[in-house]
Amino acid sequence: MMLRLTLALLSSLAGPALADQPVWDTFNGDLAASKFADVTSFTPETVGRLERAWEVHTGDVSDGSGELPETVWSATPLYANGTLYLGTPFYRIIALDPATGEEMWSYDTQSRLEALTQPALKNRGLAYWEGEDTGPCARRVYIGTMDATLHAVDADTGAPCEDFGQGGVVDVNQWNEVNARFPFSLLQPPTVVGDTLLVGWAGKDWEYSVAPPGNLLALDARTGELKWELGFIPEDLIPQTGTANIWTSMAADPELGLAYVPVSSPSPNYWGGNRTQDIPLATSVTAVDIETGEVAWSRQLVHHDIWDYDTPSAPVLVDIDRKGETVPALVQTTKQGFLFVLDRRTGEPVFPIEERPVPASDAQGEQASPTQPFVDLPPPTVDNSAMPAVWGLADFLSGGQCSRERGTYRYEGPFTPPSEQGTFMYPGTAGANNWGGAAVDDAQDILYVNSMRVVQVIQLIPREEYEEVDGGSGNEEGYYPQDGAPYGIRLTEWRTGLGLPCWEPPYGTFSAYDLRTGERLYEVPFGMSQQWGFYGLRAWGSPTLGGPVVTAGGVVFIGASMDARVRALDATTGRELWSDLVEAPAVAIPAVYTHEGVDYVVFVAGGNSILKPEVSDQVVAYRLPPE
Amino acid sequence: MPASYLSVFLPALVGTILAGIAYFAPFGVTGVEGTAGALLALVGAAAVTLGALLAMAPGVRGWLRGLLDALLFVGAALTALAAWFLMQVPVAIAMAVASVGLLLALMLRSGRRTA
Fold this sequence. Notes:
The complex is a heterodimer. By secondary structure, chain A is mainly beta.
């Protein structure tokens, strides 16, 4: 609560007060990444009456069957300046009337629509900044592109801000000077803290052993000039490895002057023989001084990461009332399913973290870490103490394929290293939790999070054999070369020939946690799986991508499921209160805003091939009917 | 007599139309458009419709009618089940009614024989 009040106060001091509150002017709703909407009209009693206020198709979509790569659209819309802003996977900005969805203006970056670093055209949205000046570009919207340009336009008109870089464009690739095997792809919008843009990037960490070393760039929001740069790979290791970059959103506490950055794994993803030395900032959550770029503290969440367990989302900042004192904390969701609750001033654990022995690697040149950090309280978002049992139905229908394979591949508990024989990876590379992160009600100290339970098989393929492989690469699945390593890889979901998962459901859940005690309040199956059109039972749940929003009225809004439904849940129980069918899985975090006195929730239904092949350009806003 | 198969034919025809809508609807309307499952339901409902039409033909007697009755019942029931898992409740209801309609037709026929 204190944090929310502080941020609100700072926000009001930073710029002119807006007539319509609350705004949703960052990817996560606010800099604390709380995904909390202070609206009370959406309650368990009212959301059953939600109706579509408007629906828009941007036209920026590709299923990959034509000349363009497929699109993956996970952009949270922004509501600020009395306008709703969308970033599209064709790297356009579209400004909409928040009440009607009518287009006010659009801006086209003219970016190359090529999958330069990713298997698809991806966009996770926009950033918004407003200064104290008046006149053109006093308020700005930023969008990044696959080919590493960052564009700033006037939030009122869409005209480029001429004082930003060269005619409104900064070529971020100018800072891609080392191991520049691919461009920095700006798929996640910058995080705006005061007058600073914090910029991370995405790359191809499955492709090469030696890659651009991960860094965080701080740019001046007005000019685009570099204020400082922070690298995450030690200088002496840069010739051997790379990445450990920030491809997802960040959080910040302006009062402490710290930004909290989720750092990914070094390259290549599934073999670390080239980087057996310590890389302390890799796969970490790291606190960075916003003014200087100095590391205030860092906590590594996976040692010597060889599972692609990137820290996948901004940590949620929350002031926890614990044992009679208020602890300024952060909660970091992770791909491996642990919830790390840390004092955000120091990085020290609020709940214990224990180093435990984990299995050794038998891969050529590999030296897996002998221990990894484990957290028991709060309980992990999925039970990661062992992989799920073989699902009897799938095993029966596949003639015993699942149970045969269970004995074929290696699994010796969490953090079993990738191997030539094939290793079960649970949670899979897309993680128990991904970029959607968690939502928190700071007044109640309750955390809400969706998760997925997916088992994958990772197989290291010796180089000479890999060269013979004629395999394609997909999104979080397929063959990847890891050039420079003695192994390429093959990554697959553990399924039967008919496509049924070999492991027991549920495949996705939704949970709530009391952060004062660490206790899990509930865990319920979430969403429905779908195969060939057939829906699974509700108890089976669905893999989830995307995140929740919690409102002051006690309702959680979330898309995220394979069945292309958007839902409202009762925050107290996780019970589904309302749902609506959209065109593709709504893998973006929804935005909740109040415009001209009316509360809206808006979903982007862009789809993601990790869940199902269907993609869309649909945006749908809902409101309660007028009284 | 065979006209009692109208109680199968009519709901199956409705089921076919509804399954066709589910399969051919514009993207995002039914959640199953263009899927293999929806096509299966459409083919199943259409097959039951045609089977019911065939059953009304006067020349179908003896073991052939028995086989047709069995196929119609299995087809209608499985199509109803498939539609249920496709969340196409109207199709499921129509095909369930066709299944019940077939049982009614059999009972009517049996009753006439007894009389």
